Amino acid sequence: MAATTAMATPKRLWIVGASGALGGALREQLSREGHEFVWTYNTRKPTTEDPRAMFLDVRDVSSIEAAAARANEVLGSIDALVYLAAIATDTGRFLAMDDVTQESWDQLSAVNLRGAFFTTRAFARRCDRGGNVVFAGSIDGHKPVPGSIPYAATKGALEALVRSLAKELGPKNIRVNAVVPGILERGLSDLLPAHLVSDYLAHDALSRKGTLAEAASIFSFFATDNSYVTGRAIAVDGGL
Ligand SMILES: NC(=O)c1ccc[n+]([C@@H]2O[C@H](COP(=O)([O-])OP(=O)(O)OC[C@H]3O[C@@H](n4cnc5c(N)ncnc54)[C@H](OP(=O)(O)O)[C@@H]3O)[C@@H](O)[C@H]2O)c1
C-alpha cells in the first residue's frame, strides 16, 4: 500500500522579514505544503515580480498597521504571523562588546524586538478565529553561548515577549511561540567569527550546523499546524 503524507489544512500567513536565508527556505516549504502567504522585505527587493512581496521597515512602527491591513486584504484573512526580521549588526561586522554603540543597541532592539510586538498586535487585531504567532528566536538569547551581546539580549527579551503575549492572546485562541535556531548553514550566522562557530559546534550533540530546510519545517509546523503549544521557545539546535 502506498504511504500517504498528512497535509495540514491550507493556511494564510503573513511572513515578516522573509527575503533572507531562512525566509527563502520557509517560503519554499509553505509553497510545497500548499499554504498561501504574503511576505515582506526591507532592503532585498525581489528581482522578479512577486505580487505576494511587500516592502516593510519594521523600525517605522507607524507603517506596521497599514502593512498588516494590506496583507489581510490580499489574503482575505490571516491565520498566522511568522516574524523572522532581525539584524545582528548595524555595521556589517560582528559586534564584539567594545564595538557596541548606543545606535547599534537601539537598531537591534527596534528590529529584533520592538517590531515583533507591533506586528503581533497588528495581526491580533485582525485575527478573530484564532491562529499562530511564531517568532525566530536565537540560541544566543536562550543559553550562554559565544555570540554578540546586544543580539543575545534582544533575542532573550523576545522569549519574554512570547510568554506574556501567549497569556494576553490565549483568550483569542492565538498561540505564541518562538522557534529558536542554533547555527544554520547560512544567514545571520555568517557574521560569527570562525573560532566562535568551532566553539559552538564542539558542544553540539550532532556536531553540525542545521540546514535551512530543517529549520523551515519546524517554523512551518508551528505556524500552520500547532493548536496547543503556546508561550514556549523551541530550540532547533542539534542538541546544544
Ligand atoms: N541563520 C542562522 O544561523 C540563525 C540562527 C539563529 C537565529 N536566526 C534567526 O532567524 C531569522 C532569519 O535569519 P536569517 O539567517 O534568514 O537572516 P537574514 O538572511 O539576514 O534575514 C533577515 C531578515 O530580516 C529582514 N530585516 C532586517 N531589517 C529589517 C527591517 N528594518 N525591517 C524589516 N525587515 C528587516 C531582512 O530583510 P532585507 O534582507 O530585505 O533587508 C531579512 O528578510 C532571524 O530572526 C535570525 O535572528 C538565524
Can you lay out the helices and strands and say which pair or pack?
Elements: E1 12-16, H1 21-32, E2 36-41, E3 53-55, H2 64-75, E4 80-83, H3 102-125, E5 131-136, H4 149-169, E6 174-181, H5 194-202, H6 212-224, E7 232-236
Parallel strand pairs: 1-2, 1-4, 2-3, 4-5, 5-6, 6-7
This protein binds NADP nicotinamide-adenine-dinucleotide phosphate (NAP).
Structure description:
α2 runs parallel beside α3 (102-125). With 240 residues, this protein is α/β, with parallel strands linked by helices. It has helices at 21-32, 64-75, 102-125, 149-169, 194-202, 212-224, and strands spanning 12-16, 36-41, 53-55, 80-83, 131-136, 174-181, 232-236. The chain has a 7-stranded parallel β-sheet with strand order 3-2-1-4-5-6-7, sandwiched between helices. Helix content is 38%, strand content 15%. It has 6 helices and 7 strands, in the order βαββαβαβαβααβ. It has a single domain (12-236), classed as NAD(P)-binding Rossmann-like Domain (Rossmann fold). The longest helix is centred in the middle third of the chain and has 24 residues, at 102-125. It binds NADP nicotinamide-adenine-dinucleotide phosphate (NAP). The site of NADP nicotinamide-adenine-dinucleotide phosphate (NAP) has 28 residues, from α1.
Structure characteristics:
single chain; 240 residues; alpha/beta; Rossmann fold; 7-stranded parallel sheet; 7 strands; 15% strand; binds NADP nicotinamide-adenine-dinucleotide phosphate
